[in-house]
Amino acid sequence: MNLSDTANQKLNEQIANELGSYYLYLAMSCELHDMGYKVLASFFERQADEEREHAMKFLEYLQEVGSPVRLAAIPAPKHDFGSPAKIVQAALDNELLVTRQIHELAALADRERDYPTRSFLTWFVDEQVEEVSSMRDLQQLMERAGEQHILLVEARVARQMEEKGKG
Ligand code: FEO
Q1: Which domain holds residue 31?
Q2: How confident is the model at residue 74 (pLDDT cuts 50, 70, 90)?
Q3: pTM of the model
Q4: Is 19's C-beta closer than 6 angstroms to any atom of ligand 1?
């Protein structure tokens, strides 16, 4: 089946957007590592890996439907956020941005009556609900704990990562 030129362009852009998230979370992981927050650093490294997987899903979908993949430049991520709380807030803002991007793609597929793409995007619509929710939980936890109790946040995140790893 043929995707419209617009759908092809927007899906290719989303590959770069997801890889931009990968790069952003990797930068955040490095900054947290340098601050000595090793658990939060590995949490963000894991988030980064998930973003790369998201990019690959878009790439493989384009290949599956026989629509050209055109990789775009990925902008350098922001550095020097300054604190774990600012990093988590920026990650939440990023997830809200990605959610808007996914919704725009879904709206385009609806307008074009492109049912395969709309069906493909359903996984991402659901995934964004989960990603925004878990990042918002972390942001609220961080806010309640305050800068002086970040080690408690790390202990909670470590437990959650262990549970997720088992699941
Ligand atoms: Fe691929 Fe976290 O959005």
Answers
A1: 5-166
A2: very high
A3: 0.95
A4: no
